[in-house]
Design goal:
This protein is an alpha/beta fold. The chain has helices at about 5-20, 75-80, 100, 115-125, 200-215, 230-255, 260-265, 280-290, and strands at about 35-40, 45, 55, 60-65, 90, 110-115, 140-145, 145-150, 155-160, 170-175, 180-185, 220-225, 230. Helix 5 runs antiparallel to helix 6 (about 230-255), helix 6 packs across helix 7 and helix 7 (about 260-265) crosses helix 8 (about 280-290). The longest helix has 23 residues, at about 230-255.
């Protein structure tokens, strides 16, 4: 995986976290060029401008997974049109952050927007969706534990296993392609963001990933939230990395150390040596606060 993609992800996702509700504090910027690549069969991925967007060409239209930052809607549509003439009929939002839901409003109200029920609640309080003219960008349908969108060979299974990056992270499985879009619950080879302002949890993170690894069957390919397409084993390994990180921070807390010390002393296993640890201290502080409740 390319380190630059991960670092870009940290910047974009960090802005969303600082904003709390998602879009309110984003700096003005010119949209960057987007690129589209084939993942497998009728599934594509659009990169740049925020989180990775899944583009699934179904029999009757296109299903998008996430919509990047604000002002990327036309570029997303242009990239879609480069691979199909079918209209966008659905958007599935993996979670509430502005770099994943920011261009929802570009698409017409006829587009069916689906998200976890907690994500819908977080999105409803975002500044960008307070304008009545933009409320069509909010979810039309929600689910609690599992939901199947479309049917037959086009079936897309949505799963929720608990809090991790946020309190509403959805895992999106393209059943017929053995592929999963993991959103920012699995951003790539990096310490994750634990957004407690939107229901995220450091203490629950590893358990949630473990439940996902056990509960999702038949997947071989994974689209992370921000880095390149990877394998199911990489997703499973990421759960191991997060577990080791959280366990290390908990041990430091029990030993009476500070969050700063805990983060500085964390040493990942050799197979995770290239992981970006930029957010280790911020996450250690999150975990310390959870332990003190």
């Amino acid at each position: 995986m390319r380190r630059g993609l991960v670092l870009g992800a940290l910047v974009a996702a960090g802005v969303a976290t600082i904003a709390g509700a998602g879009l309110g504090a984003q700096p003005a910027q010119q949209p960057q060029p987007l690129a589209i690549e084939q993942v497998k069969g009728n599934l594509y991925m659009i990169t740049g401008g925020g989180g990775n967007v899944g583009v699934y060409i179904a029999a009757n239209g296109v299903v998008l997974v996430d919509s990047k930052l604000a002002n990327y809607g036309q570029q997303i549509l242009d990239r879609v049109k480069s691979v199909t003439d079918k209209p966008v009929t659905h958007i599935i939002n993996t979670h509430t952050h502005g770099d994943h839901v920011g261009s929802n409003e570009f698409f017409p109200a006829s587009v069916d927007i689906v998200a976890h029920e907690a994500t819908a609640a977080y999105m409803a309080r975002m500044p960008a969706f307070q304008d009545a003219a933009k409320k069509h960008g909010l979810p039309d349908r929600t689910f609690s534990d599992r939901l199947t969108v479309l049917s037959g060979t086009d079936s897309i299974d949505l799963y929720y296993f608990g809090p991790s990056h946020t309190g509403g992270d959805a895992f999106v499985v393209f059943r017929g392609l053995a592929t999963m879009h993991a959103g920012d619950a699995f951003p790539g080879p990096t310490v994750p963001i634990m957004d407690v302002n939107n229901g995220g949890s450091g203490l629950a993170y590893a358990d949630t990933l473990a439940k996902a690894a056990a509960g999702v069957k038949g997947v071989t390919t994974v689209i992370p939230g921000h880095s390149g397409v990877t394998t199911w084993q990489a997703f499973v390994d990421y759960g191991e990395f997060v577990k080791s990180f959280v366990s290390s921070i908990q041990a430091a807390h029990r030993a009476g150390k500070t969050a700063e010390q805990a983060a500085a002393e964390f040493t990942p296993a050799e197979k995770f040596a290239g992981f970006n640890l930029q957010r280790a201290r911020a996450d250690a502080e999150v975990i310390f606060k959870e332990l003190q409740r």
